[in-house]
From TrEMBL:
Its main location: membrane. The keyword Transmembrane applies. Belongs to the GtrA family. The chain crosses the membrane at residues 12-32, 38-58, 78-96, 102-122. InterPro entries: GtrA_CellWall_Glycosyl, GtrA_DPMS_TM. Keywords: Membrane, Transmembrane, Transmembrane helix. It comes from the Bacteria. This is Flippase GtrA (Transmembrane translocase of bactoprenol-linked glucose). It is found in: Membrane. The keyword Metal-binding does not apply. Residues 13-128 form the GtrA/DPMS transmembrane domain. It is a multi-pass membrane protein.
Amino acid sequence: MTIRSLLRLPLIKYGLVGGLGTGIHFAVLIMLVEMWHMNPIVASIVGFIVVLIISYLLNRMWTFENRQSGYVKQFVKYVIVSCAGMVINTLIMYVTIEWISISYIIGQLISTVVVPIHNYIWNRRWTFTPVTTSMKTRSGEGKS
């Protein structure tokens, strides 16, 4: 399998967008904690929100190649999935920092494994599911 053919697979694209998002998230997290002495849990939430916007656009246009109308509804679904991921991320950060007393970097690494799996499954099955003709007909969209 060539690199070009691999780059056609949504899971590979999602991984690349996720890698970029992870890099941005860590950069924001570390910058806010180390330079501005922000609480690591709050800084992680800020990083998550920054990545939310960037990753939505990249996943919509490139990963899932979904250019259908209704992007507002789709963005709301993406935000719901991402917020669920953010809750999971925040819980992991809280448990690792406050209960286990380990580095916030380790907590974020654990989140980096768990949250993307959750988000990919929900975005693939719910957020970016293409509207089929039968779905349009059932909802009344396909009628003239």
